[in-house]
Design a protein that fits this description.
By secondary structure, this protein is of the alpha/beta class. It has 2 domains: about 150 residues, Quinone Oxidoreductase, Chain A, domain 1 (Alpha-Beta Complex); about 130 residues, Rossmann fold, CATH 3.40.50. The longest helix is centred in the middle third of the chain and has 13 residues. The two termini are about 15 Å apart. The relative contact order is 0.16.
């Protein structure tokens, strides 16, 4: 039997269980992948708590997870270019990657570069495509100044680096414990909390051109107060502000292609993209993994290792 994370009602981490499921079978055009690493994401605990029911309702019993990396163990009819034993990076659209095995269409995997760690490979899809889309949404140009909230988190850490690759000045909002890392990738760190607007103005005396919010409440309002135009503000966390201010809300859905994942994997494997790993947990400790994630302020990704 295989195993998978499931929950049968909305709630806290106590509704999460690792249960036995039938061994998956590859249908036409599909693969079965034995999962080696599958990262967890904030959207997953928000869905599980019912906070995003209107936008992304759960059907019970629900699985969890989109990101994964692993080894192909079965291929269905009509599959070409992929063989049993291949190491792949991929994504699931069925909330099913937090498991020992996952079934996906062949078009949702790409070869794992030999130099890429399993933990990083299993962390690329949601955070990577979200960061890619958010950066693209604010149209950064060389010489611009862009502020990023949650700049050391799973998505924010990638946003910062993708912006720096475009020769953008990045002001990263994060706790003091993450300031050294932000400096190491060329960003200007500022601490969140009272007086933040003044600290940003001091760090960006010529003004702010764009703002990417990866964290949530009040940051879109801050961006507006800093004089950033709504069409150059993107939030992946404050959907109420999108309707109120007309800002953008482009996330993983706007760049959810295997080509984007493959490009990110190549960048990470070549050392041009640092994907911080905050910690790893066995699948059986999924509740502990989400407890750490929901506490906030992690630097990088948390990964399940089935």
């Amino acid at each position: 039997m295989a195993q998978a994370v499931k929950f049968d009602r909305y709630g806290g981490i106590d509704v999460l269980n690792v249960v036995e499921i039938p061994e998956p079978v590859a249908g036409p055009g599909q693969l079965v992948v034995q999962v080696v690493a599958a990262s967890i994401n904030p959207g997953e605990w928000k869905i599980r708590q019912g906070l995003l029911h209107e936008r992304w309702p759960a059907t019970f019993p629900s699985g969890q997870g989109s990101d994964f990396a692993g080894r192909v163990v079965a291929v269905g009819d009509g599959v070409s270019g992929v063989a049993v034993g291949d190491e792949v990076v991929g994504f699931s659209d069925e909330r099913s990657s937090q498991a020992t095995h996952v079934v996906v269409p062949v078009g949702q995997v790409t070869p794992k570069p030999a130099g890429l760690s399993w933990d990083v490979a299993g962390s690329l899809y949601v955070a990577g495509t979200t960061a890619f889309a958010a950066v693209r949404a604010v149209s950064p140009e060389a010489g611009d100044t862009v502020v990023v909230s949650g700049a050391a988190g799973g998505v924010g850490s990638l946003v910062v680096q993708l912006l720096r690759a475009r020769e953008v000045t990045v002001v990263g909002i994060a706790g003091p414990g993450n300031h050294e890392w932000l400096r190491s990738v060329g960003a200007v760190p500022v601490a969140y909390g009272d007086g933040l607007a003044d600290r940003i103005r001091a760090a960006a005396p010529d003004g702010v051109d764009a703002f990417i919010d990866t964290y949530g409440p009040d940051y879109v309002e801050l961006a507006i107060d800093l004089g950033v135009k709504p069409d150059r503000i993107d939030t992946i966390a404050d959907f109420a502000a999108v309707a109120k201010y007309g800002v953008k809300a482009e996330g993983s859905g706007a760049a959810a292609t295997i080509d984007v994942v493959a490009g990110l994997a190549d960048l990470a494997a070549s050392g041009k993209l640092d994907v911080p790993i905050a910690g790893t947990y066995p699948l059986s400790e999924v509740r502990a993994a989400y407890s750490e994630l929901e506490a906030g302020h992690t630097h990088g990704k948390i990964v399940l290792r089935p």
